[in-house]
Design a protein that fits this description.
Strands 1-2 form a two-stranded antiparallel sheet. The longest helix has 20 residues. With 312 residues, the protein is mainly alpha-helical. The chain has two domains: 113 residues; 192 residues, hpI Integrase, Chain A (Orthogonal Bundle). 53% of the residues lie in helices and 3% in strands. It contains 14 helices and two strands.
Length: 312
């Protein structure tokens, strides 16, 4: 058997054993996920062979191989999202072959952070109001199908949570009196605290504590997160809340953060027509910092994804 056939045989064996499942091995992976993984991994190993690495088994994958791949992706000017996604797939693969932890974060491989730093600037408002979606009417309609899903949307509007964060919120544990502790489902596992400042916020939390017990989240005990999430998006789509319909649940987070900027600065955000950046950069910077912190990001520049206008 030639080395070429040998490496492909070991590749196919690993894929047959592991690729049908999610990264944690607990659930069946979708066809799209399986195909994407196979395509990325197969091309990666072909690229490594073209670079001169003639290993006979894919289980011989090492950190040096990952380094060479990332440099090649960087040289090809792949988008930060694509590069990170490919690296994540190889990270999953390394676990499959008994080398969990071998693939490090992208920062360890790239020659410039620009290769992995995604910068988004909102060119158009994504809020429900700006897109003609009435919050109260829609919430009442969703509530007919599911009280919990309506409450999840309300958490996004009044606290700026992500959908995952709202579904995983544990009201009794998260309510700290003057602040809401958000620590489940957050990006990077980063805990943040959102001030409880309005009657709407307090009433919503008190209601949720009446309908949940102890450490429970909004997800029923007989449902997994994945099951409940799928049901959640199905119900939302029924009410015109879907990306291909121009309005998303995430738009309520945008609504909250744009409102926060206006409250903090006294000016409309850039994406809503405000021009504070040209008038008072210090005040604009303060508003952006508050938006970034509320959103759960460490970089002030990420505020542009919600309120528009790159910081100058």
């Amino acid at each position: 058997m030639t080395s070429k056939k040998s490496w492909k045989a070991t590749f196919n064996a690993v894929m047959k054993q592991h690729n049908g499942y999610t990264a944690d091995g607990g659930k069946v992976a979708s066809y799209a996920t399986q195909k994407q993984r196979r395509d990325v991994l197969l091309q990666g190993f072909r690229d490594l062979r073209a670079m001169g690495f003639k290993f006979k088994t894919v289980k011989a994958l090492r950190g040096a191989h990952i380094q060479r791949l990332v440099h090649a992706w960087e040289k090809a000017a792949l988008s930060p999202a694509t590069l990170q996604n490919r690296l994540s797939i190889f990270r999953t693969f390394s676990g499959w072959v008994g080398k969990r932890g071998m693939v490090l974060s992208a920062e360890h491989y790239v020659t410039t952070k620009d290769a992995i730093q995604r910068t988004y600037v909102a060119a158009e408002p994504k809020t429900w109001e700006a897109n003609g979606k009435d919050y109260h009417d829609t919430l009442n309609a969703v509530r007919v199908d599911s009280e919990r899903f309506a409450d999840a949307l309300a958490l996004q509007r009044h606290f700026g949570l992500r959908s995952k964060e709202s579904l995983l919120l544990r009201p009794h544990l998260a309510d700290k009196g003057n602040v809401l502790m958000v620590n489940h489902g957050t990006k990077g596992g980063r805990t943040r605290y959102v001030p409880i400042e309005t009657d709407e916020q307090r009433q919503l939390l008190d209601k949720l504590k009446q309908t949940t017990q102890g450490p429970d989240s909004l997800i029923p005990k007989n449902k997994t997160y994945a099951q409940y999430r799928n049901q959640y998006y199905y119900v939302l789509r029924k009410h015109g809340i879907a990306r291909d319909q121009g309005v998303t649940a995430h738009g309520l987070r945008h609504e909250h953060l744009n409102e926060l900027y206006q409250t903090a600065t006294g000016h409309a955000s850039p994406v809503l027509g405000g021009e504070l950046r040209q008038q008072d950069k210090a005040l604009d910077s303060l508003g952006r910092h508050m938006v970034s912190e509320r959103a759960g990001h460490s970089r002030e520049s990420i505020a542009a994804a919600y309120i528009g206008g790159k910081k100058s």
